[in-house]
Amino acid sequence: MNDLHISGSGSAQGGEYGNIRVSGSASLSGSIKCESIHVSGSARCDNLVCKNDAHISGSFRCNGNMECGELKVSGAAHFDGAVKGKDISISGAIHAEKSVEADSLKISGAVKTDGLLSAETVSIRLGGDSSVGSIGGSSIDVRRPVTMSFLRIRRGYILKAGMIEGDTIYLEDTVCDVVRGKNVEIGSGCKIGRVEYETDFKADSSSDVGVCVKN
Amino acid sequence: MELISKRELLEKYGISYGALYRWKRMGLIPEEWFIRKATPAGQETFFNRAQICERMDEIVSRGDASSLQELAESLKGKTGGTLIVKTNYGNKEFDLDDVGSVTVVFKDGRENVLYTEDKKQ
Predict the structure, then answer these.
(1) Which of A98, A129, A140, B30 could form a disulfide with A82 if both were Cys (CB 3.0 to 4.6 A apart)?
(2) H or E element, residue A150
């Protein structure tokens, strides 16, 4: 399969490619299938299926659905369609109109989506105000980023979520209507409407939990 | 239509939230089956009891991951085959799941459809 290299600014049509490399800016139209894609700079595309890894440093926009093996974004990414991957790690900002699904999902930064974040392990380090429709998975971990306490001058960020469901859940700085899980631990800075748990429940005294039910 | 709540379903089959979401990601449980409703206890998810229980029985009876993968692919209607076009300059291969149809058009306008996605010939 042919490789595609764009240095500077360029555009390409949909089709099947080997490795796609963009340094600069590229606009890829139509449905694209490739082995791997590396973008430094900016790129936009429609539908993208990437068999192996997709590395984006800079900005990236996908107008359609995206499917990939490993997805690494440093910078900003905007997805108008659904995102599916094995390993997704994002540092920076991600905005998804639909769902984001992966085996492992790691976000440090800000995330915005109305849909579902679903992964075996979801780990979020809040680096910006975030909002998600719901989160579902096996282990879910939301924390504020590590800072040295005497340097903490900026205000904390908050994750807003409609529903969080998982087996093991740990939350910090989260505002959520319903949390359901087996082992639920609510750290500091949370405001939870309702918690339903099976085995274990712990809550930090600084957090506000409305109703708590053991199933 | 009789409904079953997500929690009741998890209890009935003794599975975890993680497993349910995993199966959903694999495509074993379609997105449309999730019926979201506002209840006094916050948003709850329901399923059509008959529909989901039949699928659950099938999933639970399979057990290991590789046969679940097979089930997911058969539900998606994937063939997993390859279309090979041999030319004088080398072979070109396409994933059969990506192929809509294969048509040969002759000079006089005659068309011969060799393959269409739904026929799976």
Answers:
(1) A98
(2) none
Residue B112, token pair as written in the block: 């011969």
ipTM, 2 decimals?
0.79
**How far apart, in whole angstroms, are the C-alpha atoms of residue A88 and residue A106?**
6
Helix axes B49-62, B6-13, angle to 10 degrees: 30
Residue A183: strand, helix, or coil = strand
Asked if the Cβ–Cβ distance from B24 to A118 is below 8 Å, we say yes
Q: Give the gap in angstroms from C-alpha A93 to the nearest C-alpha of chain B.
A: 23
Provide the 3-class DSSP secondary structure of residue A64: coil
**Per-residue confidence (pLDDT) for residue A112, from 0 to 100:** 93
Please give the residue of chain B at the shortest CA–CA distance from A135: B21
B1 to chain A, closest Cα gap in Å = 25
Cα–Cα distance measured from residue A56 to residue A90, given in angstroms and rounded to the nearest whole number:
9
Whether residue A85 lies within 8 A of chain B, CB to CB, comes out as no
Query: What tens digit of pLDDT does each residue of B7-66 get?
Result: 888 888 888 888 888 888 888 888 888 888 887 777 788 888 888 888 888 888 876 777
- Computed from CA positions of residues A183, A185, A190, A191, in that sequence, does the dihedral angle turn out positive or negative? positive
Tell me: pLDDT of A72 over 50.
Answer: yes
Residue at A101: amino acid letter: E
Chain-chain contact of B41 with A178 (C-beta, under 8 angstroms): yes
Please report which helix (H) or strand (E) contains residue B93, including its range.
strand B90-95
Q: Smallest Cβ distance to A177: which of B18, B22, B43?
A: B43
